[in-house]
Amino acid sequence: MEFVILYEDKNLLVIDKPPGIVVFPENKTKESTLIDLLLKKFVFLKNVGRIPRYGIVHRLDKDTSGILLVAKNNKTLKFLQKQFKERKIIKKYIALVIGDIKETKGWIKTLIGRSKKNWKKQKVYLSFEPDSKGKREAETYYKVLKKFKNYSLLEISPITGRKHQIRVHLSYISHPIAGDKIYSFKNQKDPKGLKRQFLHASYLKIKLPDGKIKELRSKLPDDLKDILKKIKVQNEN
Prior knowledge:
This protein has 237 residues and is α+β, with helices and mostly antiparallel strands. It folds into 2 domains: 1-86, 2-Layer Sandwich (Pseudouridine synthase); 90-204 and 220-237, 2-Layer Sandwich (Pseudouridine synthase). The chain contains 4 helices and 10 strands, in the order ββαβαβββββαββα. Strands 1, 2, 3, 4, 5, 6, 7, 8, 9 and 10 form a 10-stranded mixed sheet that branches.
């Protein structure tokens, strides 16, 4: 599998991650991962970070495409991880969700933790619930970009970075991401031809080790563009 390099300097590599590939192995992952490909092409990454992540600064789900940061040295890795931890990095995603979102923008703030019923899933917990102890705070902001018949196109800005956060939060407000196999609703009607979840990491704003501010952008992939062309705008005759 090939991948596009969006930006590169002596400290940082920015990948436009294709969908359908796991970033790094977790639990019982046996398939080839993105870090396997990166280690073949950039052998020096074996000296960065720890197994299995090496220089990968953050993660994207298997079927999510878009911007992924890879540090070329340990100093840069710690520098960028600190920005994520302190919530200084601005992240934006594009998502197509099921249904008509009435509000033009919204804010979702809950606790998130692993589901007791299914270890592969994350779950929203509310602070007053008995099982909420130890669960982590999660915040997601969204705004509506365009409305289609039966769908809404959103720009999403996660403030925190919990596992599956965007997918869990949108399902929680009854607008799951189109094509999501884990957090979809029963009998959910996805756009015809959509073969993965419609979620793309489109924008990142970070500070580089030299102090400069860098804005990174990734265009919506062709497979997702094609879906938007096929579905009708809400008020279209």
